[in-house]
């Protein structure tokens, strides 16, 4: 069985035994091409591994960001629920004070009417005093 790509040690032996220079150059070129192909394949493999690692790192970062975002929204949700409870308490307190405010407004209107009546009585008593 013959080897189509001679190795360097066998090529020098074959060259002494009658290998033609064109065939020797052809074998070296094939060896060079194989070596370049292997190097290119290794570099492509390393590049692909690096790209995949970056993709995995990006996915891990996104996962971390999603977890942190979920925690933030959970905190915000709890805070908004507490604020809604406090607002409800404030509305109830305002409703309770609303009755008192209405009574105070009625008393204020009555005091205005009493003041007008007192002024009218004062003017009437002055008028009676002048007679």
UniProtKB/TrEMBL annotation:
One of its GO terms (molecular function) is gamma-tubulin binding. InterPro entries: BLOC1_su2 (IPR019269). Residues 1-29 are annotated as: Disordered. GO terms for biological process: endosomal transport; lysosome localization. It holds the Pfam family BLOC1_2. One of its GO terms (cellular component) is gamma-tubulin complex. Belongs to the BLOC1S2 family. This is Biogenesis of lysosome-related organelles complex 1 subunit 2.
